[in-house]
C-alpha cells in the first residue's frame, strides 16, 4: 500500500492485508517502483493536506504513473476513502467526490449493501450482503453526470451502496464503484477498520482483502 504525505490509514490497510493472509509491502509516493507487488491499495487520509481538492495533488505523485499503468494492465487497485478520491482524480474511475451535503465531517459505523461481487475486491461477499464498516470523511459525496451514473448501473459497476441513510448525499446512494474490468475499485467507507471484533464494528471489512487472495469465506 502507498503512503502519501498525509496518509492516515496506510498501516491499518497493511494490517488488514496481513489479517487476510497476504503480505503487505510499503510503497512510497515519491518512488515510482512498485516493488513487484501483485496489487496496490491507496489508503485513506489527507494526502497533501487535502489542499486544492482531496486527492488532486496525490494524483501527480511519481508512484501514481506506475499505478495508472498497472491498472490499465489489469493489476488490482483498491482506493479507500482518500484513495477513492485519488482514483477519481487520476481518471481511473469516473465521477468525483465532493463535500458532504450537510457540510460536516462524518464519522460513524455505516451499513452497506455489496451490489457487485464480480470484482477482484468483492468476490468474497454474497451479492446483496449487508455489511457494517466505519465511514469518516468530509468529501464523500459521489457525483457524476446522469449518463455516467446510468452506465455504472447498467454495467453493474456500483460495487456498494449505503443503506440505513445516506451519510453524505452521494448520488444514488453510491458508496463504491469499479472500472469496466473490475480490477480497480474505489470505496468511500473503510473496510480496513472492520477486521477485528475487538477494535472495529465487526470483521465485515475483511472480505475485501480476502477477495483478492481468493481465500474462501
Ligand atoms: N478518511 C479519509 O480518507 C478522509 C478523506 C478526505 N480527507 C476527506 O475528508 O474527505
TrEMBL record:
Q: Report the PROSITE patterns cross-referenced here.
A: GATASE_TYPE_1 (PS51273)
Pfam (any one): GATase_5
Q: Which domain of life is it from?
A: Bacteria
Report if keyword Electron transport is assigned: no
Q: Which pathway does it operate in?
A: Purine metabolism; IMP biosynthesis via de novo pathway; 5-amino-1-(5-phospho-D-ribosyl)imidazole from N(2)-formyl-N(1)-(5-phospho-D-ribosyl)glycinamide: step 1/2
This chain's protein is named Phosphoribosylformylglycinamidine synthase subunit PurQ
SUPFAM superfamilies for the chain: Class I glutamine amidotransferase-like (SSF52317)
> Subunit info?
Part of the FGAM synthase complex composed of 1 PurL, 1 PurQ and 2 PurS subunits.
The compartments listed are: Cytoplasm
User: Which SMART domains does the protein's record reference?
Assistant: GATase_5
Q: Which UniProt keywords apply?
A: ATP-binding, Cytoplasm, Glutamine amidotransferase, Hydrolase, Ligase, Nucleotide-binding, Purine biosynthesis
Give the matching PANTHER family: PHOSPHORIBOSYLFORMYLGLYCINAMIDINE SYNTHASE SUBUNIT PURQ
Q: Name one GO biological process term.
A: 'de novo' IMP biosynthetic process
Q: Name one GO molecular function term.
A: phosphoribosylformylglycinamidine synthase activity
**Species of the source:** Jatrophihabitans endophyticus
One GO cellular-component annotation of the UniProt record comes to: cytoplasm
Gene3D superfamilies per UniProt: 3.40.50.880
Per the entry, what this protein does is: Part of the phosphoribosylformylglycinamidine synthase complex involved in the purines biosynthetic pathway. Catalyzes the ATP-dependent conversion of formylglycinamide ribonucleotide (FGAR) and glutamine to yield formylglycinamidine ribonucleotide (FGAM) and glutamate. The FGAM synthase complex is composed of three subunits. PurQ produces an ammonia molecule by converting glutamine to glutamate. PurL transfers the ammonia molecule to FGAR to form FGAM in an ATP-dependent manner.
Matching entries from NCBIfam families are given as: FGAM_synth_I (TIGR01737), PRK03619.1 (NF002957)
Coiled coil start-end: none
Amino acid at each position: 500500500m502507498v503512503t502519501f504525505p498525509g496518509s492516515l490509514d496506510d498501516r491499518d490497510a497493511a494490517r488488514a492485508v496481513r489479517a487476510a493472509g497476504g503480505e503487505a509491502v510499503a510503497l512510497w509516493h515519491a518512488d515510482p517502483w512498485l516493488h513487484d507487488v501483485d496489487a496496490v491499495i491507496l489508503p485513506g487520509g489527507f494526502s497533501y493536506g487535502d489542499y486544492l481538492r482531496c486527492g488532486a495533488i496525490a494524483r501527480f505523485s511519481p508512484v501514481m504513473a506506475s499505478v495508472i499503468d498497472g491498472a490499465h494492465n489489469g493489476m488490482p487497485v483498491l482506493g479507500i476513502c482518500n484513495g477513492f478520491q485519488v482514483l477519481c482524480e487520476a481518471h481511473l474511475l469516473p465521477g468525483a467526490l465532493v463535500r458532504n451535503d450537510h457540510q460536516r465531517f462524518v464519522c460513524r459505523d455505516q451499513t452497506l449493501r455489496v451490489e457487485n461481487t464480480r470484482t477482484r475486491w468483492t468476490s468474497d461477499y454474497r451479492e446483496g450482503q449487508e455489511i457494517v464498516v466505519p465511514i469518516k470523511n468530509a468529501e464523500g459525496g459521489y457525483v457524476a453526470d446522469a449518463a455516467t451514473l446510468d452506465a455504472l448501473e447498467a454495467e453493474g459497476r456500483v460495487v456498494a451502496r449505503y443503506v440505513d441513510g445516506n451519510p453524505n448525499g452521494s448520488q444514488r446512494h453510491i458508496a463504491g464503484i469499479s472500472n469496466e474490468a473490475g480490477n480497480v475499485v474505489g470505496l468511500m467507507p473503510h473496510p480496513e477498520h472492520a477486521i477485528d471484533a475487538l477494535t472495529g464494528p465487526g470483521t465485515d471489512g475483511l472480505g475485501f482483502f480476502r477477495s483478492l487472495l481468493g481465500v474462501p469465506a
